[in-house]
Structure formats: C-alpha cells, structure tokens
Design brief:
The protein has 257 residues and is α+β, with helices and mostly antiparallel strands. The chain has helices spanning 110-121, 125-140, 153-167, 174-181, 185-196, 200-218, 223-229, 235-246, 250-256, and strands at residues 12-19, 23-26, 31-38, 40-45, 48-53, 57-60, 66-69, 75-83, 98-100, 104-105, 145-147. The chain folds into two domains: 4-147, Sandwich (Jelly Rolls); 153-256, Arc Repressor Mutant, subunit A, CATH 1.10.10.60. The radius of gyration is 20 Å and the shape is globular. It starts with 11 loop residues before the first strand and ends with a helix.
C-alpha cells in the first residue's frame, strides 16, 4: 500500500444511497465496490444484469461499462466505494488485464460487512483508504478472474465516452465521431453495441436529460431555454427523452422537485 502521506482525498469517494440508484452507462479508471445493507440494487456490469440483494457486494474493475437502474422506485440502503488503483500500491496488478468472471459476491464475510459499515460512517479519507484496502483484499479473494482479450476498441471506448461527456450539448452523430477519431463508423457503432449496450441517440438522450434535470432543479429558466442548453434539437425530442429517463415530463419534474 502507498504510504498514507502520499494519499489524496480525491483517490477515494464514498457515496451513501437510500433509494435504488438509477444512473446512466459509464466507465472510469477507478475500482468501484458496492454493498447493499437493505433491500437491493439492480446493475448491469459489462452487459450482464444483476440484482444485488441485502448482504451482497459487487466489485467493478476499471474501464468496465456499468449501469445502475431500477425497474420501479424503492427505498434501499447501499454504499458505493470508488477507489483509485493507486490506493492499492500495485498489489492487484491485473486490474486492467483481467475481469471477474462473476463480479457479484453473495457469501460476504462478516469482517467485510463490518468494513463496509465502518467506511460508510467514516469521514476521514485516510481512514477510508485503510478500510478500502481491507475490503479489496477480502473481496479480491472471492473473485475468479479471466483474462481480458485484446480489443482495439478498448482504448477507443474510453476516449469516445470522455469526448461525449465534454461535448454532449453539440450535434454528435456516428459520422461526426468517426471523423473526430479517424476511424470507421463500424468501430463507433461497435463501441455502442458491444461496450455501452445502447444506441448513440439513447446515450445522448440520457446525458442531456441528466443535464436538463439539474437545470430544472436549480434554475428558473424556461423549458425552451433548458432543452436548448442541454443539447436537444427540439422540445418534442426533449420531452420524449426526459420521459423515458425520468418517468415524467420536464414540467412534472420541476413541480415535484
């Protein structure tokens, strides 16, 4: 493990959730640990659907596309621990060369449950880092790893998603991404089909709807201004995408905030 004085607060993030999370498809450089204290959480990891139940955990390796979703609204209690690999000081060298055959762990040890409870209540990031190391050491032993096959779209996937995150308000198409990254439309389509598991328009609709939701909650701007600021081409497209992602119209969302 790296010496404690080398750690940075941004190397670890602990998130508490009291209702089943719904969050768009994403990937990142960090390791993500999830534990459910009560009820459950639906998640898609690498294209496979799982439902974590009370007392179960999941380990998501870096650069694995994952999506949190809920078939219906329900209360729950869960903790998400997002850690930079640098926290582990090279103790797990295969974080980028292998993936868990099954990322969900159902037989969680009592010591791991205690560690999740401690990290959930801890506010000091150095102490959080220590608990994260314990969690990773214990959970790692439960995983069966399989090598990651070399795929030319792997690095491209991350670059495309980073680009879209920065430019989703602009007019983005498969053709424009193909030109931006100097690859064929086939490679771009493959990223969304095999890695993100949704179409580019649907992915953009999720990002733009999330942006609009923030503006609806935090500003008094008109619906017309908000859909334009969020990257939607028309209010009709905005209403349709927002309803699909939030289960209500933008006006209903604003009234209920």
């Amino acid at each position: 493990m790296l010496p404690m004085y080398e750690l940075r607060a941004e190397d670890i993030k602990v998130i508490h959730n009291h209702r089943e999370l719904q969050f768009r498809s994403h990937m990142h450089d960090e390791v993500e640990l999830l534990y459910v204290f009560e009820q459950g959480q639906h998640i898609n990891i690498g294209g496979r659907d799982y439902e974590l139940m009370q007392g179960e955990a999941a380990v998501i390796f870096p650069d694995i596309v994952h999506t949190y979703y809920r078939p219906q609204w329900r209360t729950t209690r869960a903790v998400f621990v997002i850690c930079s690999p640098r926290l582990f000081g090279g103790k797990f060298p295969d974080l980028h060369s292998a993936v868990p055959k099954n990322p969900v762990i159902t037989d969680v040890d009592p010591a791991v449950k205690t560690a999740f409870a401690e990290i959930a209540d801890c506010g000091d990031y150095v102490e959080q880092a220590a608990w994260a190391m314990i969690l990773m050491l214990k959970l790692y032993k439960k995983l069966e790893l399989v090598p990651v096959a070399s795929d030319p779209t792997e690095n491209l996937s991350r670059r495309v998603m980073d680009y879209i995150a920065a430019h989703f308000r602009e007019d983005i198409t498969v053709e424009s991404l193909s030109r931006e990254f100097s690859v064929s439309k086939y490679y771009i389509s493959r990223i969304f089909g095999s890695r993100i598991h949704m179409s580019l328009p649907k992915y953009l609709g999720m990002l733009r709807s999330d942006c609009a939701a923030v503006l609806l909650r935090t500003t008094k701007k008109s619906i017309t201004d908000i859909y334009a600021m969020s990257g939607f081409a028309s209010q009709c497209t905005f209403n349709r995408a927002f309803l699909a992602n939030y289960g209500m119209t933008p006006s209903e969302y604003r009234r209920g905030r």
